[in-house]
Hints:
By secondary structure, this protein is α+β, with helices and mostly antiparallel strands. It is built from two helices and three strands, in the order E-E-E-H-H. The chain has a three-stranded antiparallel β-sheet. It is globular, with a radius of gyration of 12 Å. Bound molecules: zinc ion. It comes from Alkaliphilus serpentinus. It holds the Pfam family Gin.
Amino acid sequence: MNGAEGYMLKEKLHCFMCNNLKDTGIIVNNHFICIRCERKIVNTSPNHQKYQSIKEKIKLLWAK
Length: 64
Ligand SMILES: [Zn+2]
């Protein structure tokens, strides 16, 4: 594997979702998502109210 994706980063980045400075998470299309938000996305069921707003944010990642 070589690439920017992974769970441990060498430097802290601002999370695309919560805007906190974290060094653990994933990078999607050059946007950093911290581990907490990534889990939130994974664990939010499609029936959940928040799912739509989360999905809208995620769509922005791929829209570029
Ligand atoms: Zn976050």
